[in-house]
């Protein structure tokens, strides 16, 4: 769709429909396995109609990833340097877990892209995620140096949060099969809080 036109309500609706359909297809089949025909069918549009809004599968995928990464960075941005260090970090863990509960398809889409070597977002990772990670790792390092958090490697600590929270979305079928009738998100918040609280609470000063 031409960039210099003001989209109508119908055009906005169709773009949103296409992106929603693409999210379902990409999160299930990955970029390589997905086709424009599949996305068009899922959106209830003809292929030519879809291509009016997005010239290629790549263009749809890129727009999805762009919006996803910005959403994915919000919990990390929200860590407040002025807050209580332990409570700020534990709140971050819970925000990440809630995102896995609320946005499982988005998490799987992101994971699929990373597993494939991030060919469509490597530059974005370097430009957007890396500086933010450095900023928050420095903040956590400062809290540790001040004795407000138990010392560990700040970046690996953040990687651990990502692994332990996004696992519930990326391996949803496995987790739910093994948990049976129990919703994994019922006990996960308390489990993760207990684990990270014990890990990061400084030892009492004698």
Polypeptide structure, described:
The protein contains 10 helices and no strands. The longest helix has 25 residues, at 9-33. The chain folds into 2 domains: 1-55, Arc Repressor Mutant, subunit A (Orthogonal Bundle), CATH 1.10.10; 64-200, Tetracycline Repressor, domain 2 (Orthogonal Bundle), CATH 1.10.357. It is 76% helix and 0% strand. With 206 residues, the protein is an all-alpha fold. The model has no long low-confidence stretch (mean pLDDT 91). It comes from Phaeobacter italicus. Residues 35-54 bind DNA. This is Rut operon repressor.
Protein topology:
Elements: H1 9-33, H2 36-43, H3 47-53, H4 57-77, H5 85-102, H6 104-115, H7 122-145, H8 154-170, H9 172-179, H10 184-200
Helix pairs in contact: 1-2, 1-4, 1-6, 4-7, 5-8, 5-10, 6-8
Share of β-strand residues: under 5%
**Topology-level CATH name of the largest domain:** Tetracycline Repressor, domain 2
Average pLDDT figure: 91
Radius of gyration: 20 Å
Order of helices and strands: HHHHHHHHHH
DSSP E strands, number: 0
CATH architecture of the largest domain: Orthogonal Bundle
* Total of DSSP H or I helical runs spanning 4+ residues: 10
For the sheet with most strands, the description reads: none
Q: Please mark out the parts with pLDDT under 50 across 5 or more consecutive residues, or reply none.
A: none
Shape: elongated
Domain HTH tetR-type: 12-72
GO molecular function: DNA-binding transcription factor activity; transcription cis-regulatory region binding
Keywords: DNA-binding
DNA-binding region: 35-54
């Amino acid at each position: 769709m031409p960039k210099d036109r003001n989209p109508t309500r119908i055009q906005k609706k169709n773009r949103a429909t296409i992106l929603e359909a693409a999210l379902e297809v990409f999160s299930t089949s990955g970029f390589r396995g997905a086709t424009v025909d599949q996305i068009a069918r899922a959106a209830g549009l003809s292929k030519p109609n879809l291509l009016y809004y997005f010239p290629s599968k790549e263009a749809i995928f890129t727009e999805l990833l762009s919006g996803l990464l910005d959403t994915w960075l919000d919990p990390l941005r929200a860590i407040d340097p002025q807050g209580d260090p332990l409570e700020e970090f534990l709140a971050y863990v819970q925000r990440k877990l809630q995102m896995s509960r609320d946005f499982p398809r988005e998490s799987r889409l992101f994971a699929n892209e990373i597993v494939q070597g991030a060919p469509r977002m490597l530059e974005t990772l370097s430009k957007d995620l890396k500086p933010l990670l450095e900023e928050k790792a420095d903040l956590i390092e400062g809290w540790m140096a001040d004795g407000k958090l138990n010392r560990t490697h700040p970046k690996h600590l953040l990687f651990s949060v990502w692994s332990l929270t996004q696992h519930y979305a990326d391996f949803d079928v496995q987790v739910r099969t093994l948990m049976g009738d129990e919703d994994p998100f019922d006990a996960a918040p308390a489990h993760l809080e207990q684990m990270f609280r014990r890990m990061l609470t400084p030892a009492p000063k004698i």
